[in-house]
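Entry:
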Amino acid sequence: MAITVADKKLWEKAIEKCKTEKPRVKALAEFGKYEVCGHGGCYVVTWSGKGQEMKAECSCPAGKKGKPCYHVPATSGAFKLAVQTRASARVACAEPTCDGIAVEGGKYCQNCINDAEECLFG
């Protein structure tokens, strides 16, 4: 269940607990997934969306009920940085490798397309 910011006091409490707990955050292989380990164990936070549409889900008991937990604010900075980094990489990847020589219809050559796909999607 996605966690919302409906109750500002609950979010403030979650942020304060995050500052106190200082959980360990580890990025997982899948984009937007983080493992957060604190005194109560390890849980997975999954982020999706962008801008005003960003939302998070946490595997902890509170998160499963859609309530704010300290695991989400622990990962929010890392997710925002990952989104910005990915956006920057996409701009760099969009540069053609054949000096911008376009083929019919203004499309890039297959080598450029393959390079961009490799850069964006690994």
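The longest helix spans residues 71-93.
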